[in-house]
Amino acid sequence: MPAEHVTHSAGTGPSRRGLLRAGAGLTAAGALGAAGVLAAAGPAAADLPVTPPFSLEGGGDQVFWRKPLHETSWAMQSFAYDNVNGHIYFAQHRPGDNENDSDDGDPSKAHIHYGDIWIVRTDLAGNVLGTMALHQFGHGSSMAVEPTGAGSAPYLWIEGDNYNVAKGAYEDSGYRLTRFRYTEGITLTYGNPSVIPIQDRTPTITTYAGLPRPAIDPVNNMLLVRYATQSTSPNPWRLVVFPLADAVAGRLSQDDRKAERALPTNAQLKIPDDAAFQGVTLYGEYAYLLYGRSGGPSYLAAVSMNDAGGGHGEVFRTTAGATIPGREPQGCAIWVADGQPRLTFGFSGKTGTTTDPSFDASLFYKNTFA
C-alpha cells in the first residue's frame, strides 16, 4: 500500500498523496517561503542525552511471528509499547482506502474507510486482549503510548482530523496530533469527541504544516514528531523533539523544542526512491526510521537529533522476516525489557487475494549498541 516518501517532485507539497492541506493552522510555513521555512527551523537546543546508537546490523531477534490481529483484512500500520503493563498497541488500517478505487473495483465503495483505524491491544506475545475503533483520524502511520501506571489504561498519541478544508473532503491522513486515553470497546470519532476527551497536541512551531507522526522515548521521556512543512526543498520533512511533560501540558512551541532537524531524503540515505517511510521512534539522541515497500527491500536508519547539520548514522538493509509472504515493513518502537531498551520493528504479512486479503503481524528487535 502507498506510504510516505521523503522525496517529492518540485512544486508539490509533501504528503501521502503528494498534497498538503491548506487552511487554518497550515499556512504559516507557506507564508515564509522555502528559504524562510528552513531558516526558521533551527533547534532551540540540540541537547538530547548523548547515547550510542543501536547496532542495526543482522536480522534481529524475534518478538513474535505472524500473529493475526483484530481485523485480518486490515493491515498493521504501526505499534507502540506500554512498558509498565506489558502490552503492545497496534494501529490497523484497511488497505486500498487511500487509492482511487475500492478493493473490489466498486467505485461507490472507494474511500469508505478513509481515516478509520482499529487500535488493538495485545500481550507481549501478540495475543489480542482488546480493541478500540477510531473514525476520522488518519492512516495510523505512527503512534505513541504514554503509560499512566500499573493497571491503568495509557494515553495514545496519533494523527487525527483527516478533513481537508480546502478540498471540502476527507482524506486518508490526519493533520493534527491527538492525545486521548485508550478506552476499550468504544468507537471514537474525531469530529464528535463526546465519548471521551480528545486533546489537541499539535506542535505550534512555525514550520509545521501537518501529517504528524509521533513516537515516545520511554526511557528519557521525550516526544518525537515527524512532520511535513510547506517547503518544496529536497527536505520537506522534519523531526522535532519536546520533553514529554511539556507536550502533555500542551507546551509545543518554538521555545519548547529540545531538538529539531531536517529528515534526510532517500537519496541522502542512499536507499531506493520507492522505499517509503514506514515508521519512526526515538531513544536518547537518535531517531530510528524504517523504510521499504511490499515485496521489496527494507531499511533501518539512525539519525542523530544532536546533529542539526543534516547528516545521518548507520543505514542497514534488514533481512528480518524475509520469508514472510507479502512482507511490508510497518512501524518501530522502543520496548523496555528487563530494564534495557530494545529497538523493535515490525512487518505486515499478507496472504489471500486482493479482494479477500488476510494480514498478520511479526515483530523483531535489536538490543546491542554500536
Descriptive overview:
The protein is built from three helices and 23 strands. It has helices at 28-39, 244-248, 266-269, and strands at residues 61-67, 75-82, 87-93, 117-122, 128-135, 143-146, 155-160, 163-164, 169-170, 176-181, 187-189, 199-200, 210-217, 222-228, 237-243, 259-262, 276-283, 286-292, 298-304, 315-318, 328-337, 340-352, 357-366. The longest helix has 12 residues, at 28-39. The two termini are 33 Å apart.
* Spans of at least 5 consecutive residues with low confidence: 5-41, 98-110
Mean pLDDT: 86
Strand % is: 35-45%
Measured as a percent range, the helix fraction is under 10%
Reported for the largest beta sheet, the result is: 5 strands, mixed
Terminal CA distance reads: 33 Å
The outline comes out as: globular
Radius of gyration: 19 Å
Query: DSSP helix count?
Result: 3
